[in-house]
């Protein structure tokens, strides 16, 4: 693709028994819809009122099933999303026209599911058909209610409510919602559970035109990321599908909205008006500025409306004569949307880790090519690997001899050696500067003239005169100027001979005598009778202990029972408390095992480095030995009594190679032992982690969800041990959910075998909602 294409716009007519056949007609191609109005005779003979409209769209869906709607509208968009193209499917129309039914469908019946659950099913089906790619799926659910952003999945226990309000942020990669939770889904059932969780949190209200009217705009986003399993290419593709269910426009005279519903309708109509203004601006090729930031809806959909995605609009209309004016308005919006063009393109990104591995392979290949080139040019034993400490020390020695004049020139081998030579020049220069400075400090007292505190201390010590001149400082004429301190004059003996450092430290102590730290020390010493040599930390600890003992002595010695909070804390906060209290022993064992595991890993890494170094040395020795053999073959071989005669250098290389191979085998055996220990330690760490998390879940449920009057049953020594009692079975939930689910499977699954994930997620959501309602009722009865 990559070229500009127009937006696809479809119209879906809501089925009704009172269809206006005389006013609404369809073309033979099923892509045209004509509207005809009778003239108002009350306007007189001269009447220029428009009575006929014709709208050309991409398809008209009249009395269409949910299957046909999905095949026509969304199937191609979802399939192209797995190839790296972004997609957006948007439902627009009057309130009660069937937008939510088109997008979400009826969750009670599997056949009546909408575009959104069908898109999730298609995504996971296509993932199964692509075993050559590792595809990850994530989802998010955003609600825009009264120009405020809300996360419909924030009620999940591992998410929790956001402290800061969500905001829309733009970056070079596009528009994203800061603070919106994104959830990884590895299977179809998890995605349906998240969908149903979000649906239960949507805001709905009732008015005369719709008993369950959506009072907010909702955007369900599916994020996909595909990595190739067969190719080592660092490229991977990403894409997202925005499924937008817009709130319906309302005429307040028809809907009869009042109070809160009236306020919601005002925000809905305002945002839809801004959306239409943005669509008109996008359809006008001469417009430079597009007003995306007028409302949260257009700002959040900026990438979808005018970006690089496949955009499809489904306009839901009534087929009744009473709603014909709103139907015309919706059709005008659809015709304007068809003027908008987008430029779909594949979203390609680069995996940094895989790119590094590919570059390492390419580097190794280039080294081999360079070695072949050197052998053809008779440049043998040239090493292009990073220099070790011995080679760097040799270069440093050569640089020093070159500077001293004992070495005339330094032989150039390769570029890395040249860079190291210049680096060693810098090292030698810095060492000489440090030696000069240290020798001056041994003879003289160096004072920075910009350090006024030090200068004042030196003046007090009598080492500098009033004008700031040091004693013995040359004035340019060969004389030393300055006033000697009184203590240095002959015949005068000072009472206490103090060095400069002692005087400076004493002056610093005098200046710091009035600091808050010293005051704190004085107060603490007077309260707790501490010696002045105590440390600040000890003093503070003693003060805290004194305050605690004083508080405990004043209050009666009673064991206060901690009050349960009205809302349970977030799991991260509770987990920290659990590790410090009930799970402290398991946490200690976990940390010890983890430290042992890290130590073994460090030893294995060091052993691996040694093995690699020995392997490189073996390769170098082999190359030198092969060179000696080839040289011996060229010069002629000598035999004595059938034995080959070799020179001393080749004999030493053979012995060295033998020792290196022995070291290699020893180190490799140590590495194998370490890997076995690492595997065992990893198993222990995983066991401790699982035990810690399991104990935490039990503690968290029993501490914050079990009713307080049932806490006695789970205390030590009672009949019920911790962990034996599921939280969902503490109170009765009426009919057993498992029996209900089994009956549902027997009646529904023979008709739709693919519906098991759908109904599994539905039953789990119902279980959670029933449990929450029961617990809320139980808490209300306790309050009464």
From TrEMBL:
Boundaries of every Kinesin motor domain copy: 6-340
Coiled coil regions in record: 349-376
Keywords on record: ATP-binding, Cell projection, Cilium, Coiled coil, Cytoplasm, Cytoskeleton, Flagellum, Microtubule, Motor protein, Nucleotide-binding, Phosphoprotein
Alphabetized CDD domains for the sequence: KISc_KIF9_like
Location in or out of the cell: Cytoplasm, Cytoskeleton, Flagellum axoneme
GO MF term set: ATP binding; microtubule binding; microtubule motor activity
Compositionally biased residues, Basic and acidic residues: 535-562
Single GO BP term: microtubule-based movement
InterPro entries membership: KIF6/9_C (IPR056524), Kinesin-like_fam (IPR027640), Kinesin_motor_CS (IPR019821), Kinesin_motor_dom (IPR001752), Kinesin_motor_dom_sf (IPR036961), P-loop_NTPase (IPR027417)
Short name of any one Pfam family annotated for the protein: Kinesin
Compositional bias ranges of the Polar residues kind: 525-534
Protein residues bound to ATP: 93-100
Domain of life (superkingdom): Eukaryota
Main location: cytoplasm
Positions of region (Disordered): 482-572
Any GO CC annotation of this UniProt entry: microtubule
Oligomeric form and interacting partners: Interacts with HYDIN.
Family of this protein: Belongs to the TRAFAC class myosin-kinesin ATPase superfamily. Kinesin family.
Biological function: Essential for normal male fertility and for progressive motility of spermatozoa.
Name this protein carries in UniProt: Kinesin-like protein
Gene encoding the protein: KIF9
